[in-house]
Records
---
Amino acid sequence: MSSSSNPSSAVPAAGSFTRLLNNVLQGNGQDLRWREEPVEVSHDKAKSTYWNVTAIVDGDPMDCGSGPKLRVAKDQAAKKTLILLGTIEP
């Protein structure tokens, strides 16, 4: 698995980690897929959906994120994956 050799010191704004991960992996010729798992949560007689998302690079699960909205969970997983790949610093 290849990764960027120069970590970026400029961290993108929240919400754009997903786009950055996609761009980095496309540039490296790597495949990105997502495992999206909705989880129903009950509280005070109300039900809501919470999301668990895993970024999968070239068939290997990398890292996961979770949140009340799919895009939030996906962006969290993307940020963690970018850190693992050395593209951004924690």
---
Amino acid sequence: MSTRKANLTGFNPQKFAAAAGQPSGDPWARNEAWRYTGPFTRGNRFRGAFPGFGIAVVAFAGYMVYEQVFLTSSHDAHGAAAEHH
């Protein structure tokens, strides 16, 4: 048998939320609406947070491929660990 403990303060959050509801005549609703539409949607804000990141990733990956293909020599193939022993 599961009985809920009574809140000592007498405050019931469910009743409070039901009574509060949504404000019918919010004077700031029109002024707040622009924040979440058009170029200010969550996806667009995230895309603009790191300008040039995509180009940088492609350039870095291209350099890594170039380095592996063209800048390896026979000396590098043995590894740095062999020189220390």
---
Amino acid sequence: MNIVIENNPSSRRLSDLGVISWPKWSCQPGKYALVFEERETCYLVKGKVKVYPKGSSEFVEFGAGDLVTIPKGLSCTWDVSLFIDKHYKFDPPTSP
């Protein structure tokens, strides 16, 4: 699945990445089918989620305070147990 989770990164690391200037996204608890067309890096301010890759019963769980990198091309279901509030950025698209 190759989701990379960095638990509780330092405020310096977040500042160096410019996380505070990234757009924000939020969602209520529930299940969401998502496809990541580009690699996403996100920082969860609030919430908790289990991510299930399409066709798998295995999951990765992360939540508030985690810096997460989600690979390009991942089709998955987000099972959100606590309201999500996150900063995010996508890598620029690559030319074919």
---
Amino acid sequence: MHDDCPGHWYLCIIDFKHFDIQILDSLRSKSRDEFRFKSVKIMVEFCQTFFKLYDIGKDVFQFSIDWAPSIPTQDNGGTVECMSLDICRDSKMVI
């Protein structure tokens, strides 16, 4: 996902096995947390509409949404892609 922070992306993972949604942000900022959380909720609404349209049968509105615990942070804005892939690999997530 992307917001108005120049050049910064953060990752949102919908985990259907554990019924939760995690936000992975290597440049987490208290001043942007509320905006990013709202953005994830908008994405969840879109996913729910998609699932309903194609009769997938998932109700992501029932999933919990939270920040992923203990992810590495970056010092600059140039390494987020590598960090995102490392985080997914280390947590054994499938991309």
